[in-house]
DNA sequence: ATTGAAATTGATAAATCGTCTCAAGAAGAT
DNA sequence: ATCTTCTTGAGACGATTTATCAATTTCAAT
């Protein structure tokens, strides 16, 4: 019935491993989360208010942080807020961030990823995820 | 006597251009800032408490933001705090982070940096700083 | 199905981080 | 030295996120 069976199973696996429980709220938040590329807790709060007016903001924060631990999400702090990126089913994308107008351009680069793997291997690491953010000025803000 | 004559002149140029004043606090904070690769306002607050116990935290925030406008610093949101990067400092290092034992290995990779520049140029960006973190398991934790 | 231990929730208090306010003090031009 | 303007320090404030805790829900064991 639910669309994202694979991710639900991944979450359940994580929950089981840590003696946590699969709740109605966690399923609701996961379903909503997986339909976004990235979202803030506040945005999700308003979005889900229609489906469950009693869902608390604290629960959303707790659940999104849980998703980070389960490697379904990745938190990214920008400006005063925290963005939760969906890294589970899309190819992981990186960000170009304009420090002036806060514009964000997403990109993907296989060569960089390959070099990352090399660095990791050289140091005995096995990468599960990564974060790459390039900060600078976009063409308009450079004047 | 101050060591960073070039940066002090750059700051004075910016101040003059905007009808701002060169104060004891601004010089003190600049001297301290230029000795770091990156620092938070809070860290600087404690660090400078010895030299000037009356220096206010608000002044440090104001001054670090001023440095950003004068292109001496670059703000970057890291975790819950804001890191102020020293732009004149070059050797930027990246991190390999073990998600199990939290071991952190620093590395530098020119090829990756070159590819980052290419991506930025292709999108019309001029990079001033970046952040690359690879998350995974180190050799010991993989078993 | 019922029970009971353990985890989760919602509401809100509290903490955190950074900015704003404003009276008093410092800088710099005249 | 004077005068205008900018800056400072202290604390209030606003926004975001986390902690607290009693009531509720989950889920495994009856």
Feature tags:
Dna Ligase, domain 1, DNA-binding, 41% helix, homodimer, 5 helices, 3-stranded antiparallel sheet, 25% strand, Arc Repressor Mutant, subunit A, alpha+beta, 143 residues, flat, 2 domains, 3-stranded mixed sheet
Strand content of chain A: 25-35%
Number of helices of chain A: 5
Helix/sheet category of chain A: alpha+beta
| Contiguous runs where pLDDT drops below 50 for at least 5 residues of chain A | none
Calculate the terminal CA-CA distance of chain A, rounded to whole Å.
52 Å
CATH architecture of the largest domain in chain A, please?
Answer: Orthogonal Bundle
CATH class (first level) name of the largest domain in chain A: Mainly Alpha
Which percent range fits the helix content of chain A? 40-55%
Question: What is the chains' assembly state?
Answer: homodimer
**Strands of chain A, total number:** 6
Annotated CATH homologous superfamily of the largest domain in chain A: Winged helix-like DNA-binding domain superfamily/Winged helix DNA-binding domain
Shape estimate of chain A: flat
Largest β sheet strand count, sense and barrel closure of chain A: 3 strands, antiparallel
Q: In what order do the strands lie side by side in the largest sheet of chain A?
A: 1-3-2
H/E order of the elements of chain A? HHEHHEEEEHE
Structurally, the number of domains of chain A stands at 2
Task: Using a beta-carbon cutoff below 8 angstroms, give the protein chain pair with the largest interface and the number of residues from each chain.
Answer: A-B, 33 and 37 residues
CATH topology of the largest domain in chain A: Arc Repressor Mutant, subunit A
What do the pLDDT scores of chain A average to?
Answer: 91
Rg of chain A (CA only): 17 Å
